[in-house]
Amino acid sequence: MTDTRVFATPAGVTIGPLDDIADGAARNYVLQLRAGRFHGFVVRQGAAVFGYVDRCPHMGLPLAQTLDAYLTPDGSAITCSWHAALFAIPDGRCLGGPCPGQALTPWPVTVRGDAIVTA
To answer: Which domains are seen in the chain, by residue range?
Structure first.
């Protein structure tokens, strides 16, 4: 087993049931791939899902200090718990904080049937 961190996944990997994420919430996923471990998270808004690599563009740290705590209290944006940067849920662009002009790295995911699948 390797401890190398990777920043992309192949398409077609089922990562879990859609119902594992409450509407308006986010969940962390770690996938062990041949090349190493991938760390990402998915935000659910109704039937739509938005995936991102769990890495802040400002400092390269994981966004959440507490498991699955990726969203602002009102659920309107993604937040970095280290430096309070805010990111738009649909496209990951920086809305405020120490990351102007930057964005989260997308992790392409989709819903197929009742499951979240890498795209």
So the answer is: 5-118 (2.102.10.10)
